[in-house]
Amino acid sequence: MPVATGQIRDASKRGLFIATDYTDVQLNQTVELEFRFPDRKEKAFRRLKAQVVRKSDQGLGVDLEGLDNDGFTISALLSWLQKHNHIVSYFPPIRQNYFH
């Protein structure tokens, strides 16, 4: 299973835009997003499922609705991003190595 990195650039209760240079995904493909809150003592990762609804040179737009997701996790992510001002205009992501 491919693994890629990215940075959230825009977020709403419905979906996210993730800046990434990873392009090996298709529209309507279901992907799994894994993240953790860097400033919290808990080191556990959270997971959300998303459907790819947009692809561009800057990244991917994903829809969180209609999939089996925990509403609390989505709310916690949105609150954290807003509190830490991590919703910013696009800057190219740092190129990462991808592991298969």
Automatic annotation (TrEMBL):
Gene3D superfamilies: predicted glycosyltransferase like domains (2.40.10.220)
Domain of life: Bacteria
Pfam families for this protein: PilZ
Chain ranges of the PilZ domain: 5-70
An annotated Gene Ontology molecular function: cyclic-di-GMP binding
InterPro entries noted in UniProt: PilZ_domain
Protein name, entry field: Type IV pilus assembly PilZ
Species in which this protein is naturally found: Marinobacter lipolyticus SM19
